[in-house]
Write a structure and sequence with these properties.
mainly beta, 8-stranded antiparallel β-barrel, 9 strands, 10% helix
């Protein structure tokens, strides 16, 4: 699966120059929140870490209702975990931050100035920070986590809406679910990221 996702990303990158010369083009900025969590083995009762997302996008129109949208995002992922030890609560926060490159295929339904859309696509992330923060007995300590893998492959799926403000300028908003396909942990301790992401943005049509 990871090999297939990498091949798809490379294919879309190769397609971008030709698309730039021939197809409708728009650029945008976007930001929002990532309600990050993880599936683990052995299973841990992790809870959500709320992180930030910020980045940009380029959208190429393939057909009146179909487009491809590569993005570059800085995203905060991870999860939280709590346990009782010697009658005291120990809180741990796993902070995994990435630069991600989603390649989304979007299907739009134009309804006047309002364009609902759905999308799906692969996503490759490159780790820029991996830390663990533990609070126990009134003290907090932070340490670097070296055991995680440097890349994370995900599948993103979601829906949103684009609203045209004026000619060539639109607002966007979408909700997406990101499913981690890669074990970024060790062979004995699996960790796969998940996240519900809420994004808003501004898009400018150039062609």
């Amino acid at each position: 699966m990871k090999r297939v996702l990498m091949q798809l990303v490379i294919l879309f990158v190769i397609m971008i120059p030709a698309a730039f010369a021939q197809l409708p083009l728009s650029v945008g900025v976007l930001g929002g929140l990532n309600l990050a969590n993880a599936t683990t083995s052995p299973s841990l009762s992790t809870t959500t870490r709320t992180g930030m997302i910020v980045g940009g996008s380029i959208e190429f129109g393939l057909a009146p209702m179909l487009s491809v949208q590569p993005e570059v995002l800085y995203i905060q992922k991870g999860a939280k975990y709590s346990m009782i030890f010697l009658g005291q609560t120990i809180d741990a926060t796993f902070k995994f931050d990435y630069v991600e490159v989603p390649i989304l295929i979007k299907a739009k339904l134009p309804v006047g100035p309002l364009k609902p859309y759905v999308f799906v696509g692969p996503n490759i992330g490159f780790s820029v920070n991996a830390q663990g923060e533990v609070t126990a007995f009134g003290q907090t300590q932070t340490s670097k986590i070296d055991s995680t893998k440097s890349t994370d492959f995900c599948l993103d799926i979601g829906a949103g809406v684009e609203y045209s403000l004026i000619a060539n300028l639109s607002l966007t908003g979408d909700v997406r679910y990101s499913l981690g396909l890669t074990n970024i942990g060790t062979e004995s301790e699996s960790w796969k990221s998940t996240g519900v992401q809420i994004l808003v943005g501004v898009k400018i049509s150039l062609m």
